[in-house]
Amino acid sequence: MTVMCGKDYISIVVIEDFFKYYKVPLESLHLTNKTCRAGREVIDGIAYYIVRTPKDQYIPCGGKPLENNMTHLSYSLTLMSDPQVHENIVREPVIKIEYKCVYPYIRRISLPFPIIPFSSETVLRVDELEAKVEMNLFKDHTYTEAFTSAPTIHLRDKVYVQVRVTEPEDFFHLRVNECWATQTPKPNETTSMHTLLQNGCVDDETVAFLNSSADDTGRNGVGSTVQYTFDMFRFVVEPHELYLHCTVRLCPPDDGGPCIPECKTITKREAVKGDPTQGLLSYGPIRIEVPESQKSNLLIVLVLPVGVIWVLGVFLLILITVAKAGSRRLSRLSRT
């Protein structure tokens, strides 16, 4: 028996000989909802009975209520057979097979290079499913063209960030819990760190989520894509590069309440821990472009005090020389 957890379906595959042994015909096999029936397929010369359930048919076909804990989400279906009635008795056993697919829904993501990379992606395999979450930086508010090399961005210009579940697409809702910038690729750095999002809420006055649209794409915790912006900044000391890191959580589509952040109170962000149920996305370096006028002004500020010191020195030297000459002249006049 094989259970396949695809990005948009759940399947069970059982060899035909198993059912023949128990004298269970194909036409008697179905899920809890009898309209969702098994089919027969021959693969490499071997016959199998297969039930493939698309994700939008999980509940209609009799899928059990979703089970979740702090880290994972479980989908469960049951394949069963009708009793084989002979006159008014049953001799053959009724087959009942319960099968599950388990998905993690807490992930931590970071952009693992300064804002030089094209995108950042984290992958977590569960059974046969590869769940992928990706973070990209885009060139403008349309979110149509992502940077394909390390971006260089002017101070105070908008930085357009997108985090989305790429596989399985449109299966989970996505909540971005925390985002912060560091001066190095290390997400746990505390010496040069600036928080943008905390507990799913804004922690920098320039941060803004994409305005809600008809399908709510871009809002935090509502769909499989989150888009937000912040104003470009730099740390006081060089190098003038940023690395962006975010932690995310995956939520079942019918469990939207806990996924949408309540932005009333904010607690301090905990240090990043090596929790296998979390995925970290990092992006960087993001380079800051300093205008030439600012560089020139800095040079003037540095050179001007040195010039003032020289002028004052020469002026004092002249005063001392004049004072000494006057003193000698008065001395001669007094002797005469």
TrEMBL record:
Keywords: Disulfide bond, Membrane, Signal, Transmembrane, Transmembrane helix
UniProt keyword Flavoprotein, yes or no: no
InterPro entries per UniProt: ZP-C, ZP-C_dom, ZP-N, ZP_dom
KW Iron-sulfur (keyword) present: no
Cited Gene3D superfamilies: Zona pellucida, ZP-C domain, Zona pellucida, ZP-N domain
Parts of the chain that traverse the membrane: 298-323
Ranges for domain ZP: 4-266
SMART domains named among the record's database cross-references: ZP
The name this protein goes by in its record: Zona pellucida glycoprotein d
